[in-house]
Design brief:
single chain; 317 residues; alpha+beta; Jelly Rolls; Beta-Lactamase; six-stranded antiparallel sheet; elongated
């Protein structure tokens, strides 16, 4: 890695050329293919990781489920506890998300040596780490608040009696956490998969947002349905693509799934400030997972109620 490349990374941006020359030789550089483990849960944490290229996903196993904690992008760092605390073990797992991901590693031994010989360099790095952790804590706190608020709604049996009302409440929480001008939640028809019913929306009048529409009538919904995953379109990309009635500048959408089957879509558009970020994507992913649970529970409750009514009508019990 060249000096200018290292200096372009936020963690080292405050260092002079001379200081960069001191740091560069003590950094280990390693390439990873997509899906390769950077570190596993239980391993000794003794390094700070900085992404020079690509991205990394951090996950944690909770009650036999794999929970995504963070998506770390190019220029960001993770694993800071490894250099700040002795004999600490990783509680999570980190895996490369992109092919040719390049990670720079600063070991605890080199960190302590640098702290002794060049304390001013360490002071600058620690300040950047502190600022980064503060920003990350804000995102984590918001994410936890979303999970808690939606969970309270979903776990209330009364809310499951009306999935449309529940969806509207969930959408209000999401758009409050990720301020956007428009949002909607749609579920594919059970026997007409190419048709979607909009069960909740914000910032869109019935005049502009049909209650039901064919998937192939909308370029973004059709693409998301085919991709069966996530879509994030920035303002720059949006200008060169076909515009739709529910967005003017950018959008973020996520497929809603039940047991791997794509059953609907959650979409936000025209973010109030800036572009939709990877943290916004993570929040939407979590929300989509909770919505899928709510939809499944609501359907089961509806089927059970219908069966009980049939029993009363035809069996007399």
């Amino acid at each position: 890695m060249e000096k200018n490349e290292l200096k372009s990374i936020a963690l080292f941006s405050g260092l002079s050329d001379e200081e960069i020359s001191v740091v560069l030789p003590i950094l280990e550089e390693q390439k990873y293919h997509s899906g390769r483990t950077v570190y596993a849960a239980g391993e000794i944490s003794e390094k700070l990781f900085i992404i020079s290229k690509g991205s990394v996903i951090i996950t944690h196993e909770l009650d036999n489920d794999i929970i995504t904690i963070a998506n770390i992008q190019q220029g960001q760092f993770f694993g800071e506890a490894g250099i700040l605390k002795e004999s600490k073990k990783h509680q999570s797992e980190a895996r490369a998300q992109a092919d040719d991901t390049i990670i720079l590693k600063l070991s605890r031994d080199n960190f302590l040596k640098l702290k002794k010989e060049n304390p001013e360099i360490i002071a600058s790095i620690l300040e950047k780490i502190s600022n980064g952790l503060s920003e990350r804590l804000t995102h984590d706190t918001t994410r936890i608040a979303i999970i808690s608020a939606i969970s309270d709604l979903v776990n209330n049996p009364d809310n499951l009696n009306n999935i449309n009302t529940l969806a509207q409440k969930i959408l209000s929480i999401i758009i409050h956490a990720i301020p956007s001008h428009q949002a909607f939640l749609g579920i594919y028809k059970k026997y007409e998969k190419n048709q979607i019913d909009i069960i909740a929306s914000i910032g869109l009048s019935p005049k502009h947002m049909p209650k039901s529409l064919p998937i192939d009538s909308d370029p973004y919904l059709h693409k998301l349905y085919a991709k069966d995953g996530e879509m994030r379109v920035s303002s720059g990309e949006y200008e060169s693509q076909e515009k739709v009635f529910y967005a003017k500048k950018n959008l973020l959408a996520r497929a809603i799934k039940i047991e791997g089957e794509n059953i609907g879509v959650l979409l936000l558009s025209d973010k109030e400030q800036g572009e939709f970020s990877s943290q916004n994507s993570l929040m939407l992913s979590i929300a989509a997972g909770q919505i899928s649970f709510a939809v499944e529970e609501a359907h089961l409750r509806k089927e059970k109620t219908a069966q009980e009514e049939l029993k009363r009508e035809y069996v007399g019990i």
